[in-house]
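RECORD TYPE: protein structure
NAME: YolD-like family protein
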Amino acid sequence: MKNANMQKGRGMVKWQPFASMPEQFVCIKEMIQEQTKVPRPILTQDAKERIENKLLISYLGEEEVLLTYYKNGYLYKNYITVADINPLNKTITCTDAFRNQRM
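PREDICTED:
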């Protein structure tokens, strides 16, 4: 039996210590994303030739290589197999580890 004079309170409320307001959470998330961005790497001619050789070896031997690429301030790594090289457009068509085709 409950006491009628006892205060009800808020009940069970999930505790949110840091970003308790949605607007605050969005702002903090954007700040963290901006802090984790890296500047675009500058490649030397030697590095470009090594990358070209690795891609050519993957294309001719159908070998999987680890590709590290820069996109929108972040470095991404992915294992790929080169399916086609188009020197006119400077693009490669590749498949990832799950055989999904990408450009």
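COMMENT: The helical segments are 22-35, 45-61.
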